[in-house]
Amino acid sequence: xxxxxxxxxxxxxxxxxxxxxxxxxxxxxxxxxxxxxxxxxxxxxxxxxxxxxxxxxxxxxxxxxxxxxxxxxxxxxxxxxxxxxxxxxxxxxxxxxxxxxxxxxxxxxxxxxxxxxxxxxxxxxxxxxxxxxxxxxxxxxxxxxxxxxxxxxxxxxxxxxxxxxxxxxxxxxxxxxxxxxxxxxxxxxxxxxxxxxxxxxxxxxxxxxxxxxxxxxxxxxxxxxxxxxxxxxxxxxxxxxxxxxxxxxxxxxxxxxxxxxxxxxxxxxxxxxxxxxxxxxxxxxxxxxxxxxxxxxxxxxxxxxxxxxxxxxxxxxxxxxxxxxxxxxxxxxxxxxxxxxxxxxxxxxxxxxxxxxxxxxxxxxxxxxxxxxxxxxxxxxxxxxxxxxxxxxxxxxxxxxxxxxxxxxxxxxxxxxxxxxxxxxxxxxxxxxxxxxxxxxxxxxxxxxxxxxxxxxxxxxxxxxxxxxxxxxxxxxxxxxxxxxxxxxxxxxxxxxxxxxxxxxxxxxxxxxxxxxxxxxxxxxxxxxxxxxxxxxxxxxxxxxxxxxxxxx
Length: 553
Ligand SMILES: Cc1cc2nc3c(=O)[nH]c(=O)nc-3n(C[C@H](O)[C@H](O)[C@H](O)COP(=O)(O)OP(=O)(O)OC[C@H]3O[C@@H](n4cnc5c(N)ncnc54)[C@H](O)[C@@H]3O)c2cc1C
Description:
By secondary structure, the protein is of the alpha+beta class. Helix content is about 30%, strand content about 20%. Helix 9 runs antiparallel to helix 10 (about 355-380) and helix 10 (about 355-380) packs antiparallel against helix 11 (about 395-415).
């Protein structure tokens, strides 16, 4: 098509846009990412990278680099609850340091049926890795200081006008598709007239209203805190709640607290931020406030439409979370993974129109599921009101702290150990999944029931040689087969070859655990590690139909 400068123009170099650039660039798709800022995010923002995102980083070959970032390797990642930080510790949910992640993910296979555990690292560090990996891929270009201002869908292409934020110069870029990863204020979503649904923000004592993020240098915190080291420190008292996340385990923190009536970020000063921090501390402490910002908690929003013509939405541009549970950025990563291989397959002539339609069919229900789960965590912690005696010395205070501690330790487990939430999303109404009649596994945030029923993440196993099954998958499609003598494999390989589809046929005949989990002689795994189909050997014509179906042809 003449005049087309790039295949995909991505507006926004946040986690969603950068992950998509990695998915597309790895497949040789010409991609231009524009971002209005001068660099990737510098504020820590998200601190929870979920197991599923880590599995995707592993698939792309850099999970181990991300695992090294953030807290020191031996630093616990506990979530601990206090009255004030120098007052009483009342509850703790223990989680391991990053140096133990590889060992523990194997030991806890019955809980984490996964190749990776979650990781606690600031979003800014992750974005930096995503940026460094994407920018060196052939065909990928990333332009900062470049704001998308409007677009026009021409049918076979999209013209997007971008402005140089330094000079004000405007130019038009023609791409085959436009992808809006431009965050919660997305101008592209607004131009499409697509609105979020989900109602007004919930009001809560905490995580339900305007929040203040305060960036703090306070190495002396560790001398005063009334408990062992943790990744997150929460306060519970009747004056004001707070949440302090450790950025580097050495003294850099971000404090989140909710603004009260009459308080506003516009009139806030660093001295005010200091006062809030010391209130949460419950004692004096040398520290420096390095910055602050505000954001709105209480939302659980998703758009109905994720696509209009040649324009796609992803990440916060189509769903907005309250960050309890830590799923906003993680959902954005999975959006990018889902759409990346599909756009590439269509641009290469392997996929049909239905493949692109399946993006909304698959991801919209997941956005609703995930935002609702996050809201339920916010209710659990944000509506909980401690007894007035919680800070008192003596028996009444001890009893109040015991009661609150039991509640919060249980809440901590429910919010932070969530294999079912992160691994268990399913694409039940997808046009490109061949469903079977097997029952659906339960959808419970704290429990992941591995199932190879098509439409879900492929169940993981540690193979006989100690390797992760996922490391044996191909980068594109993988056919798992459990009987080495099965001649049917060749029929699949021939059909894939005829279509130019990269299919790896993986002999799992020596893997009884995998055979038990997958339940059928064959399973077809998509590039995003989702089971597309499983069953017995179809006839040659049926194999053609199967590929037509899963490629949306
Ligand atoms: C305090 C806090 C804590 C959080 N904690 C977690 C957590 O632990 N785990 C989690 O999963 N999520 C968390 N989140 C949510 C997470 O930060 C977001 O969901 C995530 O950043 C969304 O990524 P995105 O790429 O969709 O959008 P963004 O990160 O918002 O990126 C959008 C990008 O688009 C650019 N842009 C905007 N408009 C334009 C334009 N017109 N032209 C060009 N560029 C443009 C912006 O500069 C930006 O770089 C948290 C959020 C907050 C506020």
